[in-house]
Amino acid sequence: MPIESKAKPVKINKDEWQTPNRALRGLLEGKDIQTEVTLIRYVTDVIGQGPTLHVHPYDEIFTITEGNARFTIGDQVIDAKAGDILFGPANVPHGYQNLGPGKLDSLDIHLSSEWIQFDLADSWEQSTVLIDASSKIEDSKA
To answer: How far apart are CA 50 and CA 71, in angstroms?
Structure first.
């Protein structure tokens, strides 16, 4: 016999967790609905823009719902397009940028009840935009 869940069904209206016209379009922490998963929606029309290098103390799954992105995950540079899913292991530096053309829309699944992030860079340096951010990872290890 399955064990009955302690959680109850919940509906979160889009205006309760999404913010139109901002890059960080939405944040829903799992602790608010008694689950161990946090969702972040990131959207940008600007080529080269995206979350800069950072780490989380938990795993993250990236889902590209629209557009094209260039990810740096650890020492790998990976191009992804709408429909692709990527995995970022806990404590591994990662970030991504809109490759264009057009909008990048991603829904990032954080395997944690809350969003915990340690930024390694304030912004993407022009020399690394849409090329390779591995040098930033080496800098962060020093």
So the answer is: 10
